[in-house]
């Protein structure tokens, strides 16, 4: 019987072979244990237990746990994975939305900067239209008493008209009308700024904001027909070709009558701006009834 050698008597090669055999035995025991517990399934025959010494071997079962594919799936872990995936998708979508909004905001800011650096040329606003045509009043009684005719103002607009009754009247500029003459009617009267109740007691009123004489646009003048001098009583006698002379502090302008129309008190479109020099005369009509307006249009002679 061969004598068992002591460890110190073994050569290096023998010690290496002994260690390999010991590891192989331990690995085999673990595999047998996994098979018995159903944790692994044999798909092929075991490797040669006695490989040649020169063939290198790699121990792939030294780990204390089997491969992940062999372990049963944990439902809780699967649910958490799905939750994490959903969170990641939402985070990506949120980031995309933030980037999209940021690009839009940047474009808006750029447009505002461009608009600030290149302001548009302001366009003058058109003449602000009144609610009703000026000079409206009730027919005078036997004592000559009269008052503004508020009945012709739409009820829902009456508060606005009352709020504008005390608007300050601007001082006349050198190019504003100061006098009007109508030779065919023997009219020679002063022109005041504003066409409110108090202004029309003093003469012919120029609608605030209308064009000065001689300029492109509509010069709107109004006066009473049966009170306070009856300055525009006979406007219905004017015919095309008659002259209307308007004076400023510097010069005079001659307008030629073009046409005459009768309109309702609310026909404020006759006061709209025009593209050429025009004068528009307005008064109540008919005499001592005053439920309409007579409007005379005239154009600059030259």
Give the number of helices: 3
How much helix is in the residues?
Answer: 10-25%
Give the distance, in angstroms, between the N- and C-terminal Cα atoms. 149 Å
Beta-strand content: 15-25%
**Based on CA inertia axes, which overall geometry fits?**
rod-shaped
Elements, N to C (H/E): HHHEEEEEEEE
The fourth-level CATH homologous superfamily of one domain is: Sortase
Give the number of DSSP strands. 8
Q: Summarize the biggest pleated sheet.
A: 8 strands, mixed, barrel
CATH architecture of one domain: Beta Barrel
Biggest β-sheet: strands ordered side by side in the sheet = 1-2-3-4-7-8-6-5
Mean pLDDT: 83
**Rg (C-alpha, Å):** 53 Å
CATH class of one domain: Mainly Beta
CATH topology of one domain: Sortase, Chain: A
Q: List low-pLDDT spans.
A: 54-64, 123-128
Class by SSE composition: alpha+beta
Oligomer: single chain
Plain-language structure description:
The chain has 302 residues and is of the alpha+beta class. Among the domains are: 10-70, no CATH class; 175-300, Beta Barrel (Sortase, Chain: A). 25% of the residues lie in helices and 18% in strands. It contains three helices and eight strands, in the order αααββββββββ. The protein has helices spanning 12-37, 75-117, 158-163; strands at 179-182, 187-193, 204-206, 217-222, 243-247, 252-263, 277-285, 292-300. Strands 1-2-3-4-7-8-6-5 form an eight-stranded mixed barrel. The longest helix is centred in the first third of the chain and has 43 residues, at 75-117. It starts with 11 loop residues before the first helix and ends with a strand.
């Amino acid at each position: 019987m061969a004598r068992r050698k002591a460890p110190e008597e073994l050569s290096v090669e023998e010690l290496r072979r002994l260690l390999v055999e010991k590891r192989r035995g331990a690995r085999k025991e673990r595999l047998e244990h996994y098979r018995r517990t159903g944790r692994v399934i044999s798909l092929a025959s075991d490797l040669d237990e006695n490989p040649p010494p020169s063939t290198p071997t790699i121990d792939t079962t030294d780990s204390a746990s089997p491969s992940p594919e062999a372990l049963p799936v944990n439902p809780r872990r699967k649910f958490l994975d799905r939750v994490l995936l959903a969170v990641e998708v939402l985070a990506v979508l949120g980031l995309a939305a933030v980037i999209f909004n940021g690009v839009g905001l940047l474009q808006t800011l750029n447009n505002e900067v461009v608009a600030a650096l290149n302001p548009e040329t302001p366009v003058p606003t058109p003449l602000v239209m009144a609610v009703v045509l000026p000079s409206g009043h009730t027919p005078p009684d036997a004592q000559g008493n009269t008052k503004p005719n508020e009945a012709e103002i739409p009820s829902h607009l009456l508060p606005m008209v009352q709020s504008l009754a005390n608007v300050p009247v601007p001082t006349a500029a050198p190019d504003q009308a100061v006098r009007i003459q109508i030779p065919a009617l023997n009219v020679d009267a002063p022109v005041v700024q504003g066409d409110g109740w108090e202004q029309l007691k003093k003469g012919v009123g120029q609608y605030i904001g209308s064009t000065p004489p001689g300029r492109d646009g509509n010069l709107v003048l109004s006066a009473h027909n049966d009170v306070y001098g009856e300055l525009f009583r006979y406007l219905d006698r004017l015919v095309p070709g008659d002259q209307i002379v308007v004076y400023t502090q510097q010069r005079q302008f001659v307008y030629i009558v073009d046409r005459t129309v009768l309109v309702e008190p609310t026909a404020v479109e006759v006061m709209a701006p025009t593209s050429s020099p025009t004068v528009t005369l307005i008064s109540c009509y008919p005499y001592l009834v005053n439920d309409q307006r007579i409007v005379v249009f005239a154009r600059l002679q030259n």
